TrEMBL record:
The keyword Oxidoreductase applies. This is Aldehyde dehydrogenase family protein. SUPFAM superfamilies: ALDH-like. Residues 13-459 form the Aldehyde dehydrogenase domain.
Amino acid sequence: MKAHDGMYIDGAWRPADGRDTIDVVNPADEQVIGKVPAGSALDVDAAVRAARAALPGWAATPPAERAARLAALRDVLVARKDEIARTVTAELGSPLKFSQAVHAAAPIAVAGSYAELAATYAFEEKVGNSVVHHEPIGVVGAITPWNYPLHQIVAKVAPALAAGCTIVLKPAEDTPLTAQLFAEVVHEAGVPAGVFNLVTGLGPVAGQALAEHPGVDLVSFTGSTAVGRRIGATAGAAVKKVALELGGKSANVILPSADLAKAVNVGVANVMSNSGQTCSAWTRMLVHRDQYDAAVELAAEAAAKYGDRIGPVVNAKQQQRVLGYVEKGVAEGARLVAGGSEPPREQGYFVSPTVFADVTEEMTIAQEEIFGPVLSILRYEDEEDALRIANGTVYGLAGAVWAGDEAEAVAFARRMDTGQVDINGGRFNPLAPFGGYKQSGVGRELGLHGLSEYLQTKSLQF
């Protein structure tokens, strides 16, 4: 798609406050494919004012009508899914098949789920001698990342719309074209002017202005834990609600009774998916000592198959960050069994699918989020040791457990300090709540729990 040179505010594309722009670069060939405005605090203020003006009307809109707008939004996403996939591939570098299957398809499912929820949710309930109203929290400032550019937008915007909130979106500067395309989708779906607004720009400028703005009632942020802390502190000073979906270092625990080959192969695929740029990726594989050598061999063989199947990481800075972690892993004594710190291609921000063996739990690569196609394999002595290692990071976003008996896997998963656990390769469910424990965040996205984040309650006693 062709980049817009303005901001989508109050139902129309408007010139930006200044002339500064952001280059959009294709990470596969390092070519500039577009330019978007670098929004200022004045652009953010205009968008928030539009959202506040639209709030009373949208909040008073019957849920059935809000559901109809969400259904229309879903239908436009379906009609433009090929364009969406091509746009994500161009600015993120994701292989087209993956963009079609995940980047374009997941937002359709999420939008559809909220169209149904908006139509069926009980926004009013009787509790004893009280009537409890569930009302929109107000104006939402949504700040989204680049790794799943449309999915993360829809995961915030759809429940906000269903709740009756109005929104100002500040997307990641690496993938703004997908956000601009989404603004076109919102417009085509007939969402009223001012209900959804888009400001492109840099995080320290536009993102900070949005988080600080007194007209914003809730800040919903997905990104790094470091930035999440700053946003949380900013919002806390104003006693403003936040929803934070942050980093992860998820454990993939393979119990001795599991199908080892299946668990390893699916685990490697999970880490390599989206070039490792997934906050919930199972980047730590935990294997019993008796099966460790076999698992390492299987993982190395599996990773070798992904050399030409994954795309680049998003930009040069991220490439150097990931390669730096690979070098640190070697320096701290981990053993490379696949990949390494040499870029596999001269052009583009590519990183080789990498697997480390002999990783110990105190190593940097076992504790910090790398956000690239890098897997660490750790050995454990017994089930209690596995649980201790699995829970032994500051994160708690996701994880996996494999066992021959499902009940055995579930019993282990219940003791993991993490927000979501896949049992024997369980499938993605857009209705299940997603979010973290510990430093992986505050709040939940998706499904009924995701809708609740955008509501506040009022009790009327009789």
